[in-house]
Amino acid sequence: MTTGSLRVQRISLRRRAVNGLVTYAALAASIIIIVPLLAIFGYLLMKGIGSINWAFLTQTPKPVGEPGGGMGNAIVGSAIILGLSSLVGIPLGIGAGIYLAEFGRNKFGNLVRFTSDVLNGVPSIVVGIAVYGLVVITQKHFSAFAGGVALGIMMIPTIARSTEEMLLMVPRTIREAAWGLGVPQWRTTLSITLKTASAGVITGTMLAFARAAGETAPLLFTAFGNQFWNWNLNQPTAALPLQVFVYAISPFDEWHRQAWAGALVLIILIVVAVTAVRIVTSRGMYRGAA
Amino acid sequence: MGVGINVRDLKAWFGVSEALHGINMTMGANCVTAIIGPSGCGKSTYVRCLNRMHETIPGATVKGQVTVGDVDIYEGSAVDVRRRIGMVFQKPNPFPTMSIYDNVAAGLKLNGVRNRAKTDEIVERSLRQSALWDEVKDLLKKKSGASLSGGQQQRLCIARALAVEPEVLLMDEPASALDPISTGKIEELIDELKKDYTIVIVTHNMQQAARVAGFTGFFLMGNLIEFDKTEKIFTNPSDKRTEDYITGRFG
Amino acid sequence: MAAQGSITPNPMPGSSRLSAVSGSQAKPLPARSSFASRFADKWFRGIITLSALSVLAIVILIAWQLVVHSDLSLKQFGLKFFFSSNWDPVAGDFGALPFVFGTLVSSLLALVIAVPLSVAAAVFITEMCPSWLKTPLSFLMELLAAIPSVIYGLWAIFILAPLLRTYVEPFLAKYLGWTGLFSGPAYGIGMLAAGIILAIMIVPIISSITREVMTAVPQQQREAVLALGATRWEMIRTGVLRNARTGIIGGVILGLGRALGETMAVTMVIGNRPEIAKSLFAPGYTMASVIANEFSEATDNLYLSAIIEIGLALFIVTLIVNAIAQALVWASTRGMPARAQA
User: Fold this and answer.
1) Which of C43, C56, C326 sits opposite A112 (nearest CB)?
2) Complex ipTM, two decimals?
3) C243 and C212 in one domain?
4) Residue C28 contacts B where some CB pair is shorter than 8 Å
5) Model pLDDT for residues B73-108, shown as the tens digit of each residue
6) For B110, which of C218, C234, C243 is closest by C-beta distance?
């Protein structure tokens, strides 16, 4: 077969060089980003692990200058405050999420969606101010309850959006099958749609919970903190991130040591939550329907 | 003088699954060769091996020899080869953020053509070649590539491919997403273009193959069953399977 | 609760469906259960709608509280509150300019550092990364996003700041001191530390949105560029980044929004001095930090009101910034990631 020539030209050196350089630059950027992550975890382990012991987990802080003591009250306080925040945030969040998914394809739904994103972007300290005004001033004292409300408010947008997303992933045909069988709307949504999406909804909730667990700013003037055990929801209560903050900015080495330990406890809880979320979501959505 | 394409023992895989089982084919210079066959027979994969696009899919591999003109395209860099072998895709894919002008000039810009006068000239020539010039000549910089109709978008993509002056033009079902009138325009275009280019066109429309192509290859399940002059394939095929396909017994 | 006869699909289940049964004489289900389920449906819908309304109510409540409690300060100082740099609680004169300055400078510095790194890393993960590396890398990014602000702050005080003080700041002063940005005593603590820790904190957001919008670009666009004879970087630049432009900018602005409101980590390393200085080594103060530090110390109503007015300003600014960002990201991915399978 007679044939002409395919005039292949080598692309310019400049283009090849740029291509190679960009690849390395992108790789370098990825590494640079990971370095602080590793550094933070590394130092947390290094500086904190030695100080975590039974005393640390169960005792209250000792007066300044005395060694020892712990963050037991802060850990329990956090649990109390988070429990309260869940009572506020989870029902409202899931409810809003259900609304957006099942009824929200309209102007009002768009407004709610937009507002939810707005609420998500509000700095947490501003939420703290608002709750101070609404709850603390009204009650005339700081309280775990106020802290719970503040954190609960922060959980709502995250839970609402992720619930919406998970519910929308359930194919419409499943709902139609239920309706076709005569199951009423409310039952369909709760027992069928929500149940199918349950794995995803739970993980979204866990994620919001883990984020709330680490929040300090909204607690500064709501829960306020407490050096002692407190079981009264209407009194100032200690919280783990709050305690870490106070200790970290203090001038006492003993408190710095304990701050690292408290931070390590906090990060372990959060990492466990995030990893669990990853595992569950990577296994797929439909375990409930299986 | 145009370039021919010589394919020897071409095999292609998607991971471990073999999609092409050793294709041997010679496509003539300045000819239009049609590739037909039922869905999933490997025709798209085959054509994508001709400009080394198949290997861009993660896990995809190719073995064998493809000689375009005097060059074994699998030796050396894929990037160098792709400029000389143009491709038009099934669904028109103009760049939505660029104007019509910039779309056509995209390949030129990449290859370092900076001279405005030269670029203007090539853009006009390419748009004339793809029979789009008259419709867009006043809108070159004002309208985006994606604002045209489907048929116009595809002709824009053809102009874009022609602007870098390839020797070969590969077309993967170029008209299947278009209406009959646009399809007709594209087929007329192919007839004109074959004077200057070697064209390989994948099509599931047998009438189209009969209208535009001098030669036709029939693929089935990753094998080339029959390759001959178009009129022979459609009036007196040698292989029974070819006959079954064109008479509509399957596919 | 199976109905009898043939069922026509009806978007209002539980109501008139039974009457739409065609053909044979179907025995209607007991009226009571049909009534009960309609009643329950109405209640259900009501409760759900209330939950949705609560989101609106909360935002309105927040805004209302901020306005009401900053009233004193608004009346006293008016708009020049934001242009005066005199923050004097003792004399009762309050000017918020140092905080505005600090917020802007620390956030901009964070963007300058974070944006190139985030976009480059996103490009790497989406287009260049071998598939076995993708999952661990994106998981690590997720972890970065999950670290609480106070822990970033803790690390910044005890590890980052000494590092800056001992190595980085002397280096910068020596080679770039002529710019005026790197002069004065190197404490480690200061604007530079705040900017760096903020940068680390906003990288995950910018990177994940960039990844999302890049992945949304259809494969055909990439192929079109490759077929013209482009190198991989040229393909990414013309076929992906260019198409994802709007969304990436949205992601950057979202990162900015986060940086503007970030409180704890910044408070712990910025030095908390209400001064405006040219050098990045100098201590500063941000709007969020002053609220965190001085809210509980505010001895009189005017003081508290001034602090809350800063909170109000922060609220409005982050609202606008986030709204713009969301609009850009939405336009780029054509609606939120939620997929409805119609």
Assistant:
1) C56
2) 0.90
3) yes
4) no
5) 998 888 889 989 999 999 999 999 899 999 999 989
6) C234
